[in-house]
Amino acid sequence: MIQPAERTKSLGASVFTEMARHKKKAASKGKDMIDLSVGSPDLPPPSGVRSILSEETLEKDNYGYALQGLEAFNEAASGYCSERFNISLDSSEVLQLLGSQDGLSHLALAYLNPEDYIIIPDPGYPIYSACADLAGAYTYPVSLNEENQFMPDITAVPSHVLERTKILIMNYPGNPASARATKDYFEKVVALALEHSILIVHDFAYAELDFTEDKPLSIFHIDGAKETALEFHSLSKSFNMAGARIGFVTGREDLLKPLADIKSNIDYGVFYPVQKAAIHALTYEQPFLSTQKQTFRNRRDVFCQSLHEKGWHVTIPDGGMFVWAKLPPSYTSMGFALKALEAGVVVTPGHAFGLEGEGYVRIALVQEEERLKEAANRLASIIF
């Protein structure tokens, strides 16, 4: 019998696929299902983005290999970062991606050798650990929890691990726990990375869904970060372009080059009409971002208030599109998720994001407010 590579054995089907299978089975029986499992925006991109995409797909010269990002995209991305985050970037410090997950997965191949370490947050998005498996490297999870305000003490990582660590991944505002980092915390992490020659990877996918009054904190607001960090951006969450698969990573050109070299051997770039629609979004659709943020803030408030009124006092997130809900001790993450399916709501069990996720479920705010109220009623009825 022909056997697959050893690296595939730790991957398996994602929990999202598993929950989708359960949802399909329940829906086939005629049950009304409210799907709050996947963080894919339910709203459309701005109308101007859709118009550009529609027009450009009719242009006969747009169907060749893109090979790499248009220079106009790099300029639009650097301009966006300057406008939104007050970060000064040259267009050479931008690398276009087929979505940020594409970049995160291939970055491990670009930097990690077998037996290198990658420090990942626990709980954290599944690709953080999967990319290490694909590269044959080791993961060292650091616990994010309410006790450490989801900002773990990286200096407590054993010295023998730090000596073999190539990459440290952070994600603020976070997924699944929508925490925000402080400048003081980022400064400590940058200092550690500079001392040990570690590449910081800041997943900034939810930068535009920060519900506080402060501007989102980029890793590049920290002195010295350009020497040791890359920052990933996603148009999926900011402009509702999840299916279009486009994002970008910023940082020093020499730090981007290994990833660019890997990608040049794997893909042929993003479809030109998608690139041009993204250029329009980054350049002209910034007013849309305020509306998007308010929509998700309102959804958060309605959903959390509904749960609180029923007696389930979940933590109200400061950003992102998820509620990271702590369960009563009598429930496991999967046990509750299966009960939720019976009640007609699809959520993601917390253990899918790491060992620290057990005892939680992640609930995505990807439905209209009335549907979220109904989902809250159904979920609370399981417990009370």
Automatic annotation (TrEMBL):
Q: Name one GO molecular function term.
A: transaminase activity
Which top-level group of life is the source organism from? Answer: Bacteria
Q: Recorded E.C. number(s)? A: 2.6.1.-
Cofactor requirements of the protein: pyridoxal 5'-phosphate
Record carries keyword Ubl conjugation: no
What Pfam family does this protein match (any one)?
A: Aminotran_1_2
Query: What region holds the Aminotransferase class I/classII large domain?
Result: 31-379
- Key word Cell membrane present: no
Q: What are the protein's UniProt keywords? A: Aminotransferase, Transferase
Q: What class of enzyme is it?
A: transferase
Q: Which family does it belong to?
A: Belongs to the class-I pyridoxal-phosphate-dependent aminotransferase family.
Q: What is this protein called?
A: Aminotransferase
